[in-house]
Amino acid sequence: MIRVVVADDHPIVRSGIVALLQDADDVQVVGQASDGAAAVSVTLAERPDVVLMDLRMPLLDGAAATAEILGVDPGVRVLILTTYESDDQILAAIEAGATGYLLKAAPESEILAGVRATARGETALAPSAAAALVRRATGSVPTGPSLTPRELDVLRLVAQGNSNPAIGRALFLSETTVKTHLGHVFEKLGVNDRTRAVTRAMELGLLR
């Protein structure tokens, strides 16, 4: 059995991950944590094979919690499972000693395969994480689509949680024009929803 601790500060997300793992015949969830400090405590108490670690958590972020855990027990393997995938976050987690880095949006089969690979001591990396490591190794700068200043204005307001009417009022645009700008943003970034547009723009360094 692969003994796993799940660390995520969102209860619904955490329970979903736990349910996924508990459905697998070869995985046993031995602990849960809702913040980075608790992740360290639970892991050092249970000594699991794998810790599924979110990146953004209260008290300690995932990278710091990973570093603390591995500083005490280098035998524990940490698999980052997160929504975020900027180069800085990926590299901080890997440099802290994480064995792998997957996205919560990955198919369930991929997450389970990542847990099993991590337990075997193999590296499980989302394509974006692998690309970030290549960029670090080669010193290359990521290239991607460019957005117009107005498209960036609209996307920044989307990232702040504003609705289309609110964005229109803030930028003195009609709601139809806002939708047109968003359509162009989606097309350029290769996405089909607002959330993914924001996260993709952050990955590319277009939003900070």
3D architecture notes:
By secondary structure, the protein is of the alpha/beta class. It has 10 helices and 5 strands. Strands 2-1-3-4-5 form a 5-stranded parallel beta sheet, sandwiched between helices. Helix 3 links the parallel strand 3 (50-53) and strand 4. It is elongated, with a radius of gyration of 19 Å. The model has no long low-confidence stretch (mean pLDDT 86).
Taking all Cα atoms into account, the compactness measure Rg is 19 Å
Q: Trace the largest sheet across and list its strands.
A: 2-1-3-4-5
In N-to-C order, the SSE pattern is: EHEHEHEHEHHHHHH
Biggest sheet architecture? 5 strands, parallel
What is the count of β-strands? 5
Structural class given helices, strands, pairing? Answer: alpha/beta
Sequence stretches where pLDDT stays below 50 over 5 or more residues? none
As a percent range, the share of strand residues is 5-15%
Q: In angstroms, what separates the terminal alpha carbons?
A: 41 Å
Helix content: 40-55%
Mean pLDDT: 86
Query: What characteristic shape results from the CA principal axes?
Result: elongated
User: What's the number of helices?
Assistant: 10
